[in-house]
Amino acid sequence: MKNENVKYFNDGNDINLMLKGIHTKDQVVSLAIKQGVIAPDDNFSGQAESGWWKAVPHCEGGVEYHQSTESVRGSFKATFVGKWG
Q1: 1-52: per-residue pLDDT in tens?
Q2: Domain range spanning residue 67?
Q3: Are 73 and 65 within 8 A, CB to CB?
C-alpha cells in the first residue's frame, strides 16, 4: 500500500471506513488501527465492498459515496468496510 489514509465516516446511522484502492477487510481495519483512526478493540463486522465509487454532494452540505463505474468522471477505486454486517 502506498501512503494512503483511512477515512472514518459516521452519519449517525452507519459507520464506515474507506481506503482508496482495492484492499481486503483486514488490510483496511489493520491500517485504520495503525493510523489511530479506530481503537484496537473496535469491531467492524461488515464485509469489504471494493469497486468504483463517486462522491456526490449532499443537500445538507456533506458528501455521499455511491457505487459507480470507471467511465464516470471523478470516480475512483476504493474499499469500504462497515461497522455492522
Answers
A1: 567 899 999 988 899 999 999 999 999 999 999 999 999 999 999 999 999 9
A2: 7-82
A3: no
